[in-house]
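To close the section, here is one more complete example, presented without commentary so you can practise reading it yourself. The ligand is adenosine-5'-triphosphate.
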Amino acid sequence: MTQAASSHSDSTAFVAVKKLTKRFGSVVAVNNVDLTLSRGETLAIIGPSAAGKSVLMKCLVGIYGADEGTIYLDQDDVSDTNAPERPKWAAKIGMLFQQNALFDSLTVWENICFRQIELGTLSRKAAKERAVELLGLVGLAQESAELTPSDLSGGMQKRVGIARAISTDPELLLLDNPTAGLDPVLSNHIELMISKIATQRGTTVISITNDMQIARTRYQNLMMMHDGKVYWSGKTDDIDDAHNAHLTQMLDGSSQGPITMRTGKREDGIFA
Ligand SMILES: Nc1ncnc2c1ncn2[C@@H]1O[C@H](COP(=O)(O)OP(=O)(O)OP(=O)(O)O)[C@@H](O)[C@H]1O
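Output:
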């Protein structure tokens, strides 16, 4: 994935982020971040609060443009929000937002196929059929289709959000904390479902999580962010006990600032 771990050159990369920086006033939310992923690869992004994880994801989906650096998706330059290639990518990216971003005034099925209804790419009848099919895929009963988000539990809302994110059969799936606030059993269930979707459809998945165990077991690659920077990135298979202990400490805040990982991959000059 990232330069340290990928065996692919940038010309074959599906996601290629180079020296990306995004500021809000004096806050450097994303600071000189590099990220390279091949098509069909999965990546977990972990890091403490305000690390820049969500802002990075919002740059990828096109909500924010790059202040510096570039974002290429399948070799299309989408660094700016108004890049000519951006509209094409709107349909090729599915995203689950941190708070699900479901519309309370719409039914579950209308939420799931919101985009298709708005753009008129599906009739309402076809959209409902598609939504019901997706409900089955995320493990919800078809009777849920006529409910509204406020009728659903947090876990069910997450599933509806994921169903909406995959409703266009996206090439790139971005998930901002798909298991936040859920109990471990449900978290595991949802992550298993995401792995299956990615494998069956060949989808490239980038997911933010606060759970090291899930990151290590369900994703091929891991990137740790802190203060807008990448502090570690590599294959999850390469994470040994020492990495795991240090990364977990950074994640839960019990380690302050830069740490030395003798066995770690050098990234951003932090690890020796
Ligand atoms: N729209 C915005 N305007 C101003 N500052 C912002 C905006 N969005 C994010 N930030 C700031 O950018 C920094 C990174 O925020 P981000 O949401 O990416 O963090 P995060 O790693 O996703 O954290 P969390 O896990 O708590 O969601 C934070 O300092 C945040 O306050």
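Once you have examined the tokens, check your reading against these statements. Residues 2-9, 260-272 have pLDDT under 50 and may be disordered. The beta strands are 15-24, 27-37, 42-46, 68-73, 76-77, 93-96, 172-176, 204-208, 221-226, 229-235.
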